[in-house]
Amino acid sequence: MDEESISRQASCFMHAVQIALQCAFSMNEARS
């Protein structure tokens, strides 16, 4: 696996993590 695809995977993963955090946060806000 070359370095470019690794960094692309990493940024994709970070993006998914951000979305998950936003989703969890908005669900938390809606519950209160």
Structure description:
It is built from one helix and no strands. The chain has one helix at 3-31. The radius of gyration is 14 Å and the shape is rod-shaped. The N and C termini lie far apart (45 Å).
Q: What topology emerges from the helices and strands here?
A:
Blueprint: H1 3-31
In short:
The chain has one helix and no strands.
Q: Any idea what the shape is? A: rod-shaped
* Strand elements, count: 0
Helical percentage: over 70%
Strand content: under 5%
Count of individual helical segments: 1
The string of secondary-structure elements, in order, is H
Radius of gyration: 14 Å
Features:
single chain; 32 residues; mainly alpha; 1 helix
